[in-house]
Design goal:
This protein is of the alpha+beta class. The chain is 31% helix and 30% strand.
């Protein structure tokens, strides 16, 4: 019997999610993990505070120095299980700014999970690597728009084995999504639809296709992250069975 969504612990998901969108470089600092990827996405350029440092002030100073050395602000990803307890409040007291409140949602997959949304849909194409059209759809929707940053984006995607789904209509990619494969779980990322093709159900179709793909691969469950203010996306994912099991936000060091 597969686990119920409510059994997905935030701390476990924090670590698993970090492998679904893996940074190009990681450094340990007394229980914390500093992630660096040239500034492309906060996920890949933030501190994951999984453990409690012996000396908070000293660890924070090291973190701020290492990000400054790379021309980046120190950023912490804060979840309910971030360490030490009260980390969010301590960073806020130091002027760190709150950014991007995000919900973490989870769907447990039963052995017979298959809603039929992806089977037989001739519009859906799959690949182990993102095509140029797939990447262009992602970058048009979410960025980055600079060639150097796009090269880093491509490298971040390649850090995790994944399935790339494209909904193709009349020879054009209309919508995309990515299924990151981490152990017996999968993460849904990069759900995007061409601006002139929205409100046609393309996003739902490509996500449902990946749900079927995950079931075919016998994954135990799927996670995804959705910005708290994106109510349209909430409705889509909840209609597919996802439940909110955690949340996180970032704390960004104030400008010097």
């Amino acid at each position: 019997m597969k686990q119920d969504s409510r059994s997905a612990r935030p701390a476990a998901l924090d670590e698993v999610m970090s492998r679904g969108w893996r940074a190009l470089e990681e450094e340990a600092v007394d229980g914390w993990v500093c992630r660096f990827s040239g500034g492309v996405t906060k996920r890949a350029n933030s501190v994951l505070p999984l453990g409690e440092p012996a000396d908070f002030a000293a660890a924070l100073a090291v973190v701020e120095h290492r990000y400054a050395d790379r021309g980046l602000p120190a950023v912490f990803q804060i979840s309910p299980d971030s360490m030490p307890p009260g980390l969010d409040e301590r960073l806020a007291e130091r002027g760190y700014l709150l950014d991007s409140p995000t919900l973490v949602q989870y769907l447990a997959l039963a052995e017979d999970t298959n809603d039929g949304g992806g089977d037989g849909d001739p519009r859906i194409e799959y690949s182990d690597e993102p095509s140029e059209a797939w990447l262009e759809t992602l970058w048009d929707a979410e960025g980055p728009n600079v060639p150097e940053a796009q090269s880093l984006s491509r490298r971040i995607l390649a850090e995790t084995p994944s399935v790339y789904a494209s909904l193709v209509f009349e020879g054009r990619v209309e919508a995309i999504a990515r299924l990151a494969l981490v152990g017996n779980l999968g993460g849904i990322y990069a759900v995007a639809t061409k601006a002139d093709s929205r409100s046609r159900g393309h996003g739902r179709a490509v996500v449902r296709a990946l749900l079927t793909e995950a079931s075919n691969r016998n994954l135990e469950g799927l996670w995804l992250q959705v910005v708290e203010s994106n109510h349209i996306a909430h409705g889509l994912y909840e209609s597919l069975g996802f439940e909110t099991v955690s949340r996180y936000h970032y704390r960004v060091a104030p400008p010097a």
